[in-house]
Amino acid sequence: MCGAPASLSGPKVALQPRFRDKGDRSMASSWRNVPFFRWSFLRLLFGMKHLTTEWQVGDGREARLAEYVVARAKRGDVQDAIRTIDDYAYNKSFLINVGDEKGKILDAAVVQAKPARVLEVGTYCGYSALRMAAAAPSAKIVSIEFNPANADIARRIHEHAGVGGRVNVVVGTLGDGGKTIDALRTAYGFGDASVDLVFLDHAKEVYLSDLKLIMDQGWLRRGALVVADNIKFPGAPDYRAYMAENEGKRWRSTEHQTVAEYQTVIKDIVLVSEYLGKS
Ligand code: MG
After folding, report:
1. Is 229 annotated as catalytic?
2. Which of the four, 16, 108, 240, 248, has the lowest number of CB atoms within 10 Å?
């Protein structure tokens, strides 16, 4: 395509091959960027009910990911663990973690916040916690995960990557009646203005209620950043509307237009919101 005479070249085609990793041409085939051409993505769609209740696709891909990372990524090398998970998601089984494209937005927010303490809600297999650990080399990260099997997978990957000592995966949900919130307070030192960055990447319908629980605890320091994935796809409209209503009052937000994980067809938004404090 690049060598076509100018007179023959029409408007740019949306589905051109994208070279995400110039060092790995195996990722570069264009069809991998169209999720509907991939069996592992269609399998995920068929398993959507299982995914949104159990937070696993149901075909064992998450457990296989842990094996893949331990077998292939260099021990103690967080960047190699991240790269290996991206490789698995492009070339083996599609994964719902934040991915390499949106991951750069998360990295930038983490660098901006310079966090000492991070709260993540929705660990899945631990990919985003790896990225945050890499972007904030001295941060303590507590990541909450609903599914104990996912928590074990993430812990195994974090240990292998050498960040297990400062990333704690806690099984629970913020809305479980106080159990998980109490654990964060008593076992992990969460207190007033003690959280510098929150990453929301779990059940989209509880983003807003969970954010309000976090605010009610007083954990956010003024200037803390809350990064929310999947604002457009699958979407968190009430959360987005809340941030719009509170723009310049309690929050100042930036919408990052991007694409959903591990493909280029489905669009998504990552919302980065700075907490302006109690009004
Ligand atoms: Mg997500």
Report:
1. yes
2. 248
CA of 200 relative to ligand 1 center, distance in Å: 8
Ligand 1 centroid to 132 CA: how many Å? Answer: 14
Q: Is 147 annotated in the active site?
A: no
Tokens (6 digits) for 96: 């719902």
Chain centroid offset of residue 106 CA? 8
pLDDT of residue 235: 94
- CATH number for the domain running over 25-275: 3.40.50.150
Cα of 242 vs centre of ligand 1, distance in Å, is: 19
Q: Could you tell me the residue ranges of all domains in the chain?
A: 25-275
Choosing from 229, 232, 268, 274, the catalytic residue is: 229
Which amino acid makes up residue 178? G
Catalytic position from the list 120, 261, 268, 274 = 261
Give me 125's structure tokens: 């297999």
* pLDDT one-digit tens code per residue, 190-227: 999 999 999 999 999 999 999 999 999 999 999 999 99
Instruction: Give the model confidence (pLDDT) of 123-173 as tens digits.
Output: 999 999 999 999 999 999 999 999 999 999 999 999 999 999 999 999 999
